[in-house]
From TrEMBL:
Pfam families: AA_permease (PF00324), SLC12 (PF03522). The chain crosses the membrane at residues 15-45, 66-86, 106-127, 134-156, 185-207, 219-243, 299-322, 352-371, 377-398, 410-434. NCBIfam families: 2a30. PANTHER family: SOLUTE CARRIER FAMILY 12 MEMBER 1, SOLUTE CARRIER FAMILY 12, CATION COTRANSPORTERS. GO terms for biological process: cell volume homeostasis; chloride ion homeostasis; potassium ion homeostasis; potassium ion import across plasma membrane; sodium ion homeostasis. Residues 668-682 have a biased composition (Polar residues). It comes from Kryptolebias marmoratus. Residues 658-682 are annotated as: Disordered. Residues 501-652 form the SLC12A transporter C-terminal domain. It is a multi-pass membrane protein. Keywords: Chloride, Glycoprotein, Ion transport, Membrane, Potassium, Potassium transport, Sodium, Sodium transport, Symport, Transmembrane, Transmembrane helix, Transport. It comes from the Eukaryota. This is Solute carrier family 12 member 1.
Length: 682
């Protein structure tokens, strides 16, 4: 982008709006860099780059959707950089008449190039790092070469192609915009913006960094500042030395027989007549020649080498980033169908399968063969990623989560929110239908992950906001007076364990319809030393059962020496503010005739206690009884026996014929156990 399109961007937008293009890109990337730095320094950063940062901040729903899009964007970025490289090669060979079909030649060269880059990437991070160092040195030399070249006096050939050295009239003529061929400020911005998307290159290889928490903030922000200054410096130098249109004909000079119609006033003042460019498209000048940097430089081949270095280093970085981000996403098993790509190879766990997938996507987009078509496609994907990184930082700060304590302090939650909104606005201004498509894909992926409910718990800020909202709503509700029109039965059901008395749960659902409060409660009777362990062990298991069976209820338990005392504790202490039970639901005591007097008295006392505490009362009586705990226990024993048999099968079968007799004997024994327990169930 620096050597191929920057002069064209400033030719179209003028250096006035060109500075705005670069400044807007830098504003977006700096805000994103600050947000990313805060997230990176809030905890251990593992492999996965932007996906890891977003998923651990906002949860798997957001992370899963943006992770897939971001990995795809990096794969398409490989195609963009490779096409830029291929364009340069084609332009070089075109002058020697070696290229006859420009688009197909770009496709062929691009495909060959991406195969070579794939080989370097698969070789491992050591080779990739060495290649990047060499390419960086070449790039730095090429940039210096541009600045040196602008100070060298122009030859007649360069003047005919639009380069006149530093001229104030050229600089002022290039100030206003001169949009052509349907281009606008935002279409030009869309083409330039991918040049600023490399800020996540360090984060994308976070798993390979020695100290990611320190390296990512420093490296990212320093890179943004250096690249911003470099883009501005190179672009302004070209704007002060090169006119927009030139014929390339050394005979187009002003003399007594020629007339300059003022289509390029500065060129006329400098003795050259480029009037023909007003009626036809010329081949040279900053608007027409993508190789302006080569012409301006002190030594043209160095710019070619710099172009190769810039495009190939960026392509290599994206080719390494995309598979690693995708591998991290697949390892989390959010999309079970993609788990195939989670497998790594070698000591560095290289995602070979991800490399192949990235290669296929890259080749598909290389076949487009047009840089101006590919660039806007990935602009939206990267902007969507940046928007969520900024929103992650804002959301984590807004949630006031105790786990949000970033070591990096130079960020602001409202600045992060502004960055997120700015990214969204720019997406729609660049290409509204592409923005809608991007967000449509995100929403579909978000809904998919939400429905599938992956079994992960990363302590996301979404959970923190849910907690804060619940507390805030409970406090707000505490100041609201009761009214008969808003009365809801809120049930405290003495079910024992959540699955022991399903009939009580069904009856409670008839009252609450999943909109009222329902507590399924259990009283553990006995010494605390004996019952406490069982109570704690059952808390999570019983709540999971309620969630699994889609019962909108909460499980609560107490331990007491007496059943009535435990129930009294539940009646008095259950609930939160206005969200407090007002109806006790209890099963009918079927054995009241044969039970001891103390148990009957305790049961009747519970009914009196409920009325004393101003509870409503619901009593359920069923002929066959309510307690099915013995059936549940028998079912659990059957499942346990089945698992033991399966484990035995897996252990015995690989050992061949020597263990067959023991295997048959063990299997028959297991079948006898199952038959006996099945008869007990009947």
């Amino acid at each position: 982008m620096l050597f191929i399109r920057l002069s064209w961007v400033f030719g179209q937008a003028g250096w006035g709006l060109g500075i705005v293009v670069i400044a807007l890109s830098c504003v977006v990337t700096i805000i994103t860099g600050l947000s990313m730095s805060a997230i990176c320094t809030n905890g251990v950063v593992r492999g996965g780059g932007a996906y890891y940062l977003i998923s651990r901040s906002l949860g798997p729903e957001f992370g899963g959707s943006i992770g897939l899009i971001f990995a795809f964007a990096n794969a398409v970025a490989v195609a963009m950089y490779v096409v830029g490289f291929a364009e340069t090669v084609v332009d070089l060979l075109k002058y020697a008449s070696l290229m006859v079909d420009e688009i197909n030649d770009i496709r062929i060269i691009g495909c060959i190039t991406v195969v070579l880059l794939l080989g370097i990437s698969v070789a491992g991070m050591e080779w990739e790092a060495k290649a990047q160092i060499v390419l960086l040195i070449i790039l730095l030399v090429a940039i210096v070469n541009v600045f040196v070249g602008t100070a060298i006096p122009a030859t007649a050939d360069k003047k005919s192609k639009g380069f006149f050295g530093y001229q104030s009239n050229i600089f002022m003529e290039n100030f206003p915009p001169a949009f052509r061929d349907g281009e606008t400020f935002f279409s030009v911005f869309a083409i330039f913006f991918p040049a600023a998307t490399g800020i996540l290159a360090g984060a994308n290889i976070s798993g390979d960094l020695r100290d990611a928490q320190a390296a990512i903030p420093k490296g990212t922000l320093l890179a943004i500042v250096i690249t911003g200054i470099t883009y501005l410096g190179v672009a302004l130098c070209v704007s002060a030395t090169v006119v927009r249109d030139a014929t390339g004909n050394t005979t187009d000079i002003i003399n007594s027989s020629s007339f300059c119609n003022g289509s390029a006033v500065s060129a006329c003042e400098l003795g050259y007549n480029f009037s023909s460019c007003a009626t036809q498209t010329c081949k040279f000048g900053s608007m027409n020649n993508f190789q302006v940097m080569t012409m301006v430089s002190g030594f043209g081949p160095l710019i070619t080498a710099g172009t190769f270095s810039a495009t190939l280093s960026s392509a290599l970085a994206s080719l390494v980033s995309a598979p690693k981000v995708f591998q991290a996403l697949c390892k989390d098993n959010i999309y079970k169908a993609l788990h195939f790509f989670a497998k790594g190879h070698g000591k560095n766990n290289e995602p070979i399968r991800g490399y192949i997938l990235t290669f296929i996507i890259s080749v598909a987009f290389i076949l487009i063969g047009n840089l101006n078509t590919i660039a806007p496609i990935i602009s939206n994907f990267f902007l969507a990623s940046y928007a969520l990184i900024n929103f992650s930082c804002f959301h984590a700060s807004y949630a006031k989560s105790p786990g949000w304590r970033p070591a990096y302090k130079y960020y602001n939650m409202w600045l992060s929110l502004l960055g997120a909104l700015l990214c969204c606005v720019v997406m729609f201004v660049i290409n509204w239908w592409a923005a809608l498509l991007t967000y449509g894909i995100e929403i579909l992926l978000y809904v998919y992950v939400t429905v599938k409910k992956p079994d992960v718990n990363w302590g996301s800020s979404t959970q923190a906001v849910t907690f804060v909202s619940a507390v805030s709503n409970a406090l707000s509700l505490a100041g609201v007076e009761d009214h008969v029109k808003n009365f809801r039965p809120q049930i405290l059901a003495l079910t024992g364990s959540a699955q022991s008395r399903p009939a009580l749960l069904d009856l409670a659902h008839c009252f609450t319809k999943n909109y009222g409060l329902c507590l399924t409660c259990e009283v553990f009777v006995g010494p605390r030393s004996e019952t406490l362990q069982g109570m704690n062990a059952g808390m999570e298991r019983n709540q999971l059962y309620l969630n699994k069976t889609k019962r909108k209820a909460l499980y609560a338990a107490v331990t007491c020496d007496d059943f009535r005392e435990g129930t009294e504790s539940l009646l008095q202490a259950s609930g939160l503010g206005r969200m407090k039970p007002n109806t006790l639901m209890i099963g009918f005591k079927r054995n009241w005739r044969t039970a001891g007097a103390d148990k009957v008295q305790s049961y009747v006392g519970i009914l009196h206690d409920a009325f004393d505490f101003e509870y409503g009362m619901v009593m359920l009586r069923m002929n066959q009884g309510l307690d099915v705990s013995h059936l549940v226990e028998a079912e659990e024993e059957m499942l346990k026996a089945a698992k033991e048999q399966q484990a035995l099968d897996n252990e015995m079968i690989p050992n061949g014929g020597k263990m067959k007799g023991l295997f048959r004997k063990s299997r028959n024994s297991s079948q006898q156990v199952l038959t006996t327990r099945g008869t007990h169930l009947k």
